[in-house]
Amino acid sequence: MDIELKPFDLSGRKILVAGASAGIGAVTACFLSKLGAQLMLNGRDVDRLNLVIEKLDGQGHIPVPFDLSELDKVPAWIKNVVCEHGPLDGIAYCVGMQTTLPVRSFNASHFDKIMHVNLGAAFALARGYRQRGCHSPNASMVLVSSIAGFLGQPGNVVYGSSKAGLMSAARGLAMEFLRDGIRVNSVAPAMIDTEMSKKAFAEMNAVQVEAILKRHPMGVGQPEDVAGPIAFLLSDASRWVNGANLTVDGAHMAG
């Protein structure tokens, strides 16, 4: 089979970006729109989603506000979105929550909140996406994980565990969804310059911040550095990539 001259072209593809209100999700939406995708932007605040839509290239982008933490309601919500707008060619799961908390302060509330949002909502979204008529014949789902899933970081154990879970989920879902024609992969960024990372830095002392910066030999990444790999995994250029994790870390793990 000949490879098309524009394997990264997403023209005519309907893609849902979950967590599109800010950070990696918002920039990913902008990136995908430049490749021709028609986007459905998910978040809890429709006003913030509309602000992102104003920055997108092309026409036909829509907000689809919904709180993905309502896990049991996600499949029905996906079905309603598809009934109104047509099956999805791809999903970028850019949802994430991080709160620094050492294990000596561990509690059920913290665990449930982080796991519910970072991991549970991804499973609920995958369940909804697999429903008959909700995805195109050659669909793709990309889960945004983190290198925190590889590393031991004080105060970040629950978050890291949730992100490791996403990488494992991508592998398991890839195998389970083979017969449905849905590829599932993950990306694992290092520190990215977003509102969430700024909040994390604010919770650290100067020595901790300096230590993190030293572990990023190419500097802290930008959301665009993650949006490109997500676009690759959603495109036909990655049609034989399935169940993989792409580390996007500016050589952090190589040092």
**Structural class, please?**
alpha/beta
CATH homologous superfamily classification? NAD(P)-binding Rossmann-like Domain
What CATH calls the topology is Rossmann fold
Number of helices: 8
Tell me the major beta sheet: 7 strands, parallel
What does the average pLDDT come to? 93
Write down the Rg.
18 Å
What's the β-strand tally?
Answer: 7
Q: What count of domains describes the coordinates?
A: 1
Principal-axis shape equals: globular
Distance between the termini: 39 Å
- Biggest sheet strand line-up: 3-2-1-4-5-6-7
Summarize the amount of helix as a percent range. 40-55%
Oligomeric nature of the chains: single chain
Describe this entry's structure for a reader.
The protein is an alpha/beta fold and 255 residues long. Helices cover 41% and strands 16% of the residues. It is globular. The mean pLDDT is 93.
Topology:
Blueprint: E1 14-18, H1 23-34, E2 38-42, H2 46-53, E3 62-63, H3 74-85, E4 88-93, H4 108-130, E5 135-144, H5 157-176, E6 182-189, H6 195-202, H7 206-214, H8 223-234, E7 245-248
Helix pairs in contact: 1-8, 3-4, 4-5
